[in-house]
Amino acid sequence: MNRKYEFLKKIDPETSNLIKGLQAIQGVEGYVSDESISAVADYFSVPVVEVEGVLSFYAQFKRVKPGKHQIAICDGTACHIKGSTQVSEWLTFELGIHPGETDKSGLFSLETVACLGCCSLAPVMSVNGRVYGTLDRKSVVKILKEYENK
Amino acid sequence: MSKIAIKKIRVGVASCGVAAGADAVLELLRNRALPFTVEETGCLGHCYAEPLVEAVLDNGESVFYRNVKADDRDIDNILALGEKDRFEIPPKRKSKELIKVLALAGKIDPTNFDEYVENGGYAGLKRALSMTPAEVVNEVKLSGLRGRGGGGFPTGTKWSFLAAKDTQEKILICNADEGDPGAFMDRSLMESVPHQVLEGMLIAAYATGATKLFIYCRAEYPMAIKHLKIAIEQIYAHRLNTVGDRVLEIIIKEGAGAFVCGEETALIASLEGQRGTPRFRPPFPTDKGWQGHPSMINNVETFGNVPLILREGAEAFAAIGTEGSKGTKLFALAGDLKNPGLVEVPMGTTLREIVFDIGGADPDKVKAVQTGGPSGGCIPVELFDTPVDYDSLKKLGAIMGSGGMIVIGNDRCMVETARYFLDFTHRESCGKCTFCRVGTTRMFETLERIVAGQGEMSDLAFLEDIGPKIRAGSLCGLGQTAPNPVLATLRFFRHEYEEHVKDHRCEAMQCDAFVDMYLDRAKCIKCKLCIKNCPIGAISDDFAIDNTKCTKCNACKEICPKKTIFRVKKGELL
Questions:
Q1: ipTM, interface predicted TM-score of the complex
Q2: Domain that holds residue B385
Q3: Under a CB-based contact definition with an 8 Å cutoff, are residues B179 and A113 in contact?
Q4: CATH number for domain A69-148, candidates 3.40.30.10, 1.10.10.10, 2.40.30.10, 3.40.50.300
């Protein structure tokens, strides 16, 4: 096995841990590459197609390399009602990318998620897991500026 | 000196608090050399007041401060017990709420085992262990507790199914895959009082003879997972996982983002490392579940109720609530209202009391409330006297669901709201049942056409025809409830659909296809902020908006200091 994926050995190689294995890969590499799919298939002794099947079922897994700063726009019910569509538009305009994409410099990536569970602060988004609430256009631009300079 | 001093300070640092900036407040407080401790605590349920800081005084009383900013002025104000920004629970809310399950949330440090025990924690487990397993099952049956995940199945009965199985391995699963957008009750419970959920699980394990305990928690809740992990270590250290003659293993599995995994058989498939597709029942999980072993699934809030039942007795629990729905219920209240947050009320409280008295919504500005998330329905303001319990909501075509409650204001379009829910469900459909896979997609496409101004009257008939078919032709709860938001809006807000189709008008001015942006030049002060902020340059130097270019992003409307820019019906004011 490729030494890069030795961290998998901490997980018991029974098939019920397949999702855990994929989560570990994404935790380390930020996404699940073709190469890592083969490694996972080897490690858990299941066909590559089965790994692909599980992988593509769950929204959490990313197949493209995310940017340095990962933005998740919450499109939960409360956020939607409070204007998450516009938050998404503003971000797309500022960054020049759509949800699911990473910008050319690899600085920002954008995705839409179902619910971050901070509904009472709607609309919210998270950057690298930190949640920002009660967004308006001004605060969105300000948050982007902060991360641009980080 | 007889002056009252601060004994300790607590800062609410659950996810909502942190999102509002509580971590910076905590850091600032900890950087001061203070003669008392600064502790972290969970969620008090008053999200609108976050970050919320509590100063516990040496006379036992507490002073709360709301919306605390991470600056020296606000910190000094707290340390001096100043009058500024003091917070008190709105009296109207206080009179309607009944805090039982959440009694310790926001009052104790979630990672502190001793604090939980000092406040009555694990007394329920202790009492359970002094009874026979059958007596415990009976106690839960007598309490009338019904599953809080949405289905409302009697919990004690479910427990008796698993208890009756005579096998070596029995599995107990806590469903913490709160995938319903707009709901955060389970997150708050796990973040704020993880031991209470685990105590409920241990009691259930003792009563049913379970050998292995799983918590299936969605990966989007890192803090909940962290607190549960700490709590499990503490349980192991205190050997509380030894019940009867068994040593129990408690395993946390992280979900990977699939709404359908809230369904029992899909959840089990996911726990086994497979795609989370539901399967036909019977066999029910209590007969054949995780890797073929009898398995029982309860929701987080259900487990959170169990220690109370054992501590206070089934009778005390059953004294609260209505005939068919006992105890209290947590609701995640959000949307168009003044005081969003996590609330706990006795079953049978009316929607009016929850939305207006507790949530502080403006009665003139609310048109509906959506319960049960994408599986539920919206209930119009005219029916707000409906008591909230499993059976009353079902009659209205909505469901209790897990407890998400979104208040919808007059300026929201119900057709667009229905479109939003179908967008969610058609993407989350696992694809196994044809009616769910294709049917929800057709419903979604039809709604997309209507909000884009291309709808026809026959579309409404189509939606009403296909809805019940999807319901009948789907194996699991996702498909069976997916048409609810559409059918409920068609029932209560049909005029909005007809307006979109016939008059090309969106009453709420929300659907972009029917809207122009209009700048009232008579009131304009020519500050040019709108011109500068328009991302596509659709506003000319003489303040005319080119609506053929405009994307209706509202940037100008938001920035205008004089509120001179409006959304108006297309072609009306040009």
A1: 0.88
A2: 328-409
A3: no
A4: 3.40.30.10
